[in-house]
Amino acid sequence: MFGIGFTSDNDVVNEIKQGNEKALVTLYKQNLGAIKKFVLNNSGTIDEAQDVLQETLIAVWQNIAKPEFLLNVKLSTYMFSIAKNQWYKQLKKKTRFKVVDVSVTENFRADEAPMLIYDTKIVCDYVNKLDETCKRLLMYFYFEGLDMNTIAEQMGFANSDTVKSKKYQCFKKLENSVKEHFEKDDFI
Amino acid sequence: MKSEIDKIYLIDRFLKGELSGLPLDEFKNKMRTDKEFAQEVESQKAIIEGIKMARREQLISIIKSQRTPETNTILSKASKIKESENTFKIPPPIKAEPDTEIKEFKLRPNYNNWHFAVAAVLLSILGFYFIFGYYIPHQKLEVAYQDSLEAQNNNLVNNQEKESETTDKPLNNDGIEKNDSLKQNQQLVQIAQVDSLKIEKDTKISETLYSVAAFETITPDGANTNTNVLTGETNDDLRVSNVRKVKGTSVKVEFWQSVVNFKGYKLNGNKLLLFDIKRDENVNLKFLDNQLYLKKNGYYYKLNGSETFETYKKETNIEIIKTLESN
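YS: structure for the whole thing
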């Protein structure tokens, strides 16, 4: 199926549901022109168009990966509608930043967003240090939102219980290394 | 351990927003009363955010590998970042971190493809050689050849006109007409000069209309056959033949000088081209039994009609030579 390209929208959706990243490349190539044109025609730059496309792809990827996702329109139409929303959101943000004072913004953010216990970037580094199976399993579960059965099927585990157990092990492994890192920091 | 797995799973469900009703109320209540539990929820949330970020970066790197770097966009991005830094103190978005590194692209020669460069150079040299070493000189040669052909045609036309004027003129004793155009034709040198390029061709020295005498042998029945009385055999060597003069024919003779010193002739109908005959050389033509013979320097040569050029072949038949000599 791969190598030549996907024949239909359903193929792309199925491949995304299985976590095949080549589908992402196909989506990128298929929608680059239309989204770029849209952003450029709406007072955006080429670079902003690339960013919008990137965000759209991530959003589409996450949405399609969900087990309950059903494609009712053409995939390109679906992509385009998400890209439009992404760009309008960005435009709104642009105008808001122009009128809102810096200090106000900082205060607002401090109040609204609760501080996380661990720095996300550091956690991210430790995720990348995990072995491939653990990394993939945790990503499939938390980012794509795949259920245990689908993960078992994708990764060749015996059943969903095995996945649950493996996932716990991987999570604990990650948590311990992160904890260890921050405990060291506390001593310093 | 089972309870630990279930606890993490429960927190996952809460964070995903999958809890509702009583389980959700119980969960929230526990978070309020149990500080340690609340801490655990917060740390799990942070770890999940880290996992999501790692996956996101992974996907972004795949998308970025598809991007074609455009210098202007990189520059515009750089200027945009700078501008935003000066105007607003916005915390940099997490996703933008790997992006802020501005890639530098330098144009470097690719030495891996050196063989293509060598092939290109060789092809260029061949091309130049073909154009300047062959094509242009060949074109000039062709022009020169065309010019020489034209000159030759013009001369032939002139000669034909003059020939028609001279056909009525009287013949001298040898049957050779004194042609007025001889001097002109002697100067007919087919050398074309185009840009110092000379092409030398065969030269027509002169042409003359000969009135050639014709003879035929008469062999009376039985009169010239000697029969041996004893054996009854006939002896052809002893045959006696008579020759009588018949009506002569005009032959147009052209004298040519060959560039490659060709010695021969070409007889086509009543037109005879003779090569390598000097101007002062005494030549004579005779027909015997419809066969043309050329007398040159005391020798007889048999001339056969042909479309191609032939070499001079001496006549060796003594009978024929005697017959030609006696008439």
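YS: worth flagging: DSSP finds nine helices and no strands in chain A.
IM: good catch. Also Residues 99-113 of chain A have pLDDT under 50 and may be disordered.
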